[in-house]
Amino acid sequence: MNRNIVIGVALVTTLLIGLLLGRAWSPDPAADAPGDAQRKVLYWVAPMDPNFRRDEPGKSPMGMDLVPVYADEAGSAPGVVSIDPTMVNNLGVRTAVVERGTLPRIIETVGYIGYDEDTLQHVHTRVDGWIERLATTATGDPVTKGQLLFELYSPTLVNAQQEYLAALASKNTVLRNASRDRLLALGVTSQDIQRLERDREANQRIRVYAQADGVIAHLGVREGIFVTPATEVMSVARLDRVWVLAEVFERQSAWVEPGQTATVELDYLPGRLLTGTVDYVYPELDPKTRTLKVRLRFDNESETLRPNMFARVVINGSPIANITHVPRSAVIRGGSSSRVVVDAGDGRFQSRQVSIGIESGDRVAIRSGLAEGERVVTSAQFLIDSESNIDAALERLESSR
């Protein structure tokens, strides 16, 4: 009797253990659900490395099973990717609205300060001679109007003075006037002629004086040097007005015209903007740099602007009306095309090819590919664009099979 009970208990125990093992080894019904069987797998990706992708199940380099990525998870249209809101926040994705309206044409360039050539005076002699005394000895020396520049000894001027003295002694009015005109033509001033008439003695040195205030921009002689009328003795320039010569790229050359406002900032005056106007646009481009030279005029009463200083220049060109434009940071430039990443809402993003127009400041005109009111990604768009391009390529591959 006891033996039969023990055998019965053993059989019941064996049945229970078999039942439990059978349930543990049976497949999960949820895994074979019709919904998963109908979902389309685009590719298989490593759980720890999204860049590792395969067309079939397998193992990742770390030995983990590849995870399937379904079509409904990657977006319904080619090039559309879906990103979890938490991941969007972690990536720092920022967007901006596509605007349509007036786009100012802003030219940002560089330039340098130069002398106002309208005030530049070149000093030459009208006869051959020698520089006996040089009153200004260095480039950059300041001079004032009427200040002595140099003294010139010239046999031609000495002879002309003696001829005038002889004409004065002869009482011949015609000869006297002719001799006086000759002295004036040779560069002798009226004051020197009056002294000659008063003292009746030829001066061996003729003095040359500055005609205006300024600085010595160029000094080409030294004391004792022999000069001719072709010799540039010196140049005198004023500093109360200066030019800023800016270089404008060829593609922006049609934007600039005289009268436009401009601002200039110098390195030694950080934060201070000088306002001026475009004074002249040169007629030709530099063949080496392919830039157009633009001249701006500035008052410089305090003489804080010095020639050859480097300047950052911003010229406000004529605006363009009724045009679609986006921030420059939203455009992804390729070799032959440009793209933007459009925020389609609900965590979906699409890479879209666009045709761009002019660039002005931090804005870029869009000729086609975007509509007013759409939102474009301005940060982290490179990551989204690379993801959408891969997804679109896989979609095309799948459709071709």
Question: Quick recap of the structure?
Answer:
With 401 residues, this protein is an alpha+beta fold. It is 25% helix and 39% strand.
The fold-level CATH name of the largest domain is: OB fold (Dihydrolipoamide Acetyltransferase, E2P)
What is the fourth-level CATH superfamily of the largest domain?
RNA polymerase II/Efflux pump adaptor protein, barrel-sandwich hybrid domain
CATH class wording of the largest domain: Mainly Beta
Helix content: 10-25%
* CA radius of gyration: 43 Å
Q: What gross morphology would you assign?
A: rod-shaped
What is the overall number of helices?
A: 8
Number of domains: 3
Approximate strand percentage: 35-45%
Number of distinct beta strands: 26
The end-to-end span amounts to: 73 Å
Summed over residues and divided by their number, the pLDDT gives a mean of: 81
**Structural class estimated from helices and strands:** alpha+beta
**What is the CATH architecture assignment of the largest domain?**
Beta Barrel
Unreliable runs, pLDDT <50, ≥5 residues?
A: 19-35, 392-401
For the sheet with most strands, the description reads: 7 strands, antiparallel
